[in-house]
Amino acid sequence: MFRKRNYGYVPRTVCTPRREDLEHNLQKEICTFLDYQSAHLPMLYFAVPNALKFLSTLKDARRISAAYSKMRAEGFKDGVSDLVVLVNWNKTLKIGFFEQKRPATYKTSESTGKRIINTAAGKPTNSQLAFLEEVRKLGAYGAVSYTLDEFQTHWREFLAS
């Protein structure tokens, strides 16, 4: 019930996942899935660092603006997908861009006993949708996933395309 700290005892708190952690957990599951796939396929995948969400923790408009300007000069683009996958499939290089969004969470209504939405699913921004449209125009694969099952469906479509 209590855990010891250097300066005394504090009550133990139960941490519930923050909204952004749901997207993080989804991406971890997808990366585990891709690690298993890489044992059977010649492939490479990597995450695109999106440091802008961490810039908001600076709480200093000048520092945020300076960091953003520096990132833009180094090639940062708005809307770039979270994961990029390269697969050598039948001697053809396939490129996929996969965006992960926070899945909806559900709870059971105490009055009706029915399942209701607790938090809505995340939505792609206009810049993310525009980026995925450009990806498709170039002949690559692009998709947005909210669950691991949905990603696996996109993965099969990507390999079949």
CA-based gyration radius: 20 Å
Side by side, the strands of the main sheet go: 3-4-5-8
The count of DSSP E runs of length 2 or more, i.e. the number of strands, is 8
Terminal CA distance reads 54 Å
Can you give a write-up of this model?
The protein has helices at 19-38, 52-55, 61-73, 126-137, 148-160, and strands spanning 2-5, 8-11, 43-47, 83-89, 92-100, 105-108, 115-119, 141-145. It is of the alpha+beta class. The strands form three sheets. The protein has a four-stranded mixed β-sheet. It has a two-stranded antiparallel sheet with strand order 1-2. A two-stranded antiparallel sheet has the order 6-7. Strand 6 (105-108) and strand 7 (115-119) form a beta hairpin. The relative contact order is 0.15. The mean pLDDT is 82.
List keywords for this structure.
161 residues, four-stranded mixed sheet, alpha+beta
Short account of what is shown:
The chain has helices spanning 19-38, 52-55, 61-73, 126-137, 148-160, and strands at 2-5, 8-11, 43-47, 83-89, 92-100, 105-108, 115-119, 141-145. The chain is of the alpha+beta class and 161 residues long.
List the helices and strands and how they pair.
Blueprint (H helix, E strand, L loop, with lengths): L1 E4 L2 E4 L7 H20 L4 E5 L4 H4 L5 H13 L9 E7 L2 E9 L4 E4 L6 E5 L6 H12 L3 E5 L2 H13 L1
